[in-house]
Structure formats: structure tokens, C-alpha cells
Amino acid sequence: MADNPFDRTAINVREKPLSTDINQLQSQMDRTLRFMLQEIFRPRTGLTDERAGAPVTGFLGNGYGVRENSPAGLSVVVPAGVGFLDIPSDTPSAIGGVAGIDDLNRYKPMALLQDATIAVPAPDPTNPRIDIIEATINRRLENPNTRDVLNPVTGAFVPSTVNKTLAWNVGSSIDNTTITPANSTAALSYKQGIANATPTAPSVSAGYVKVAEILVGAGVTTIGQDVIQDYRRILAPEHVREVSLQGTLISGAPTLDALQAPPGMRVSITDDGVSGFVYVVAGDLTGVSPIAWSQRQNGAPNAPVAQVTTVTTAIQTLLANAAQADPVLDVAVGQPILQIDIGTISDTYHVNVRF
Questions:
Q1: Is residue 336 within 8 Å of residue 308, measured between CB atoms?
Q2: Can you tell me the distance from the alpha carbon of 68 to that of 62, in angstroms, rounded to the nearest whole number?
């Protein structure tokens, strides 16, 4: 059996291959691809340690970045996309009892192939609650078909029903477009919290990763973006993410003129009447130490103060005000956010931040 990420199963000239050989060949190619992805997305171990750290559980682009529905109501949308869940102990062989159908790599795909709409359970009339959306893998043998299978006792080939696909897509075999708490699949789950004057989020199920928290206010009839917290870790090569922009800061009329940023990140340039800021909403920012650079059109380059902070009511109000932010962003209080203080207003800025 091939045991290394770049090994391949050889079928020799005039050799009569076994079904195990063909299955194993596919399993090995899948392992190689996922091994390369886990290596590409590994972060640096630390500030003074240049080695690669453990593989990162996370998501590509805006995949799984939960958003409000349109028109707004008691539901949210989970955008289609791909994530990877690192499970070092999970490398089964002969899945479904089929020799050679193996899952040889620790880095598991979570592929949601169509947007999923999730109905939010009715709110409590008196107290708020916090719900979560969580995801895991959905590896399964499916797609039954009739094939002639050898009966080793009689030596005859007998029509038999066998599963022909090792599937990974989250949702169902046809990727349903509507998921409710009552019929959430094993892989994409909505978990309802307990209403309370000071609610707390339910714990994440074992083997799952949290992608969002939703604050469901007492008696609300709609769920807006301003109550959805993004908990995804957004993946990037070497786990280095970068945002670059050009913006003009004139008190009462900031404008974002140009932007280069990965999908799934929301960016706004703002001013509070005294200083200019850039805010970046980029999911989970645990352990991030951002490095920023900026240059005023009429001034020298500088290293602005860049930090990870938490959205306060004041930041939420600033980002929602069209006279102070471009573009306007609806962001939940409590959401981790990058804040870059670029200083004096009434000028055009070029800003770059890596994190």
C-alpha cells in the first residue's frame, strides 16, 4: 500500500489490476492534493520561530460567511464555498467495507455547493438569545447502482446494488437550498441558544467548527447583518492575508476609491471628525498581529497604529453612518475587527495591512 503523500499505485503492463488498485490510485491522488493544500495554508509557528505550525481549520473566500437574507426576515443565508477541517486522528481505510476506498489525509474538505437558507426559530418575546451555526465534514458512500459482482462461491457474476460515489458535499446528495433547525444535516447545523437577559452562546459540538453567532433579539421579526458575528478563519497561502486600498478622507464625506482584498473580507474607510480609520472585517482574528503602512498624498509614509479590537456600539454606529464611512457596513457588536488609525483627515491615503 502507498503510504506517503506523493506515492502512486502502479499498474504494470499486462498486469490484471484489482479493483483495490484502482480505488487506491484515486485515494492516493486525493491525499496528494489535500496534503499540498494543508501545507500551503499552514501559518508560521510564532514570532521568533520560522517553522510551519499545525494545519489550519478555515474557509476560502466568502464561503460559509453567514449573511442576512434578502428580503430580511427570520432566516439567514450560508453562502456556498469550501472549508477545511483538520482532524489528525481521522484517516480511515476501506470506507464502507470497500478495499482501497481510503481517506488518507488529515485535512478534510467541507464543500457547500449551493447557498443554504436557514430558518431562524421564533424569538423569545421577553429575552434575547444567541444561536450558532456550525459545520463539519460529510463523508459518505452513496449513489447506488446495479453492477455485476462476482459471487466467489458460484463463480458467477450476479447483479448487485453497490454505492459508486464517495461524496463530501455538505447538505445532502442534491445540496438542498433550505435548511431548518428541525432538519439540519449532520454537517451544517443550526444550534439554538437559551433566551436570557444576558444570553450566552451554546457550546460547539465535538468535531464541528463554529462559523457564526446570531443574536436573536426579543420579539424581533428580522435578522440583519448587524447581529451576525463571523467566526470563520479565512485561509490564505502561508496564512498571510493582505488588504490594500486608496481612499479620500474629507470630514463628512470619506470615499473608498480603490481596493484590493480577498473575497470574504469587508473593508471601509471612515472618519470620526478627528481621525481617519480603516476597518477590516475578516472573521476570526485570534493571534493576529497586523502590520500596516500608509502614505498621505501630501505627506510622508508612516506606520499607522493597527490593532485587533472588538466592535463596540460606537464603532458599529460609525460604520453604519453614510456620512462617516464608505462603504457603510453593518457589523455586530462583539465582532473581532482590524482597526487601522491613519491619522489626519482631509487628504488622500494609500493604505496596506497584512495580518
A1: yes
A2: 14
Note the pLDDT of residue 171: 66
Predicted confidence (pLDDT) per residue in 269-300, tens digit: 999 888 899 999 999 999 999 999 999 988 87
179 confidence band (pLDDT: 50, 70, 90): very low
CA distance 133 to 191: 6
Q: How confident is the model at residue 184 (pLDDT cuts 50, 70, 90)?
A: low
- Bridge partners, 130 (sequence order): 215
Dihedral sign for Cα 233, 234, 235, 236, please: negative
Bridge partners (DSSP) of residue 350 are 246, 295
What is the per-residue pLDDT across 62-72, written as a single tens digit (0 to 9) for each? 999 999 999 99
Strand partners, 108: 85
> Going by C-beta distance under 8 Å and a sequence separation of 6 or more, which residues neighbour residue 36?
5
The total of other beta-carbon atoms located within 10 Å of residue 108's CB is 20
Q: Tell me how far the alpha carbon of residue 8 is from its chain's centroid.
A: 31
Local confidence band at 177 (pLDDT 50, 70, 90 cut-offs): very low
What is the signed CA dihedral for 217, 218, 223, 226, rounded to 10 degrees? -30
Residues 6+ apart with CB under 8 A from 213: 130, 131, 132, 201, 228, 229, 231, 332
CA distance 320 to 252: 13
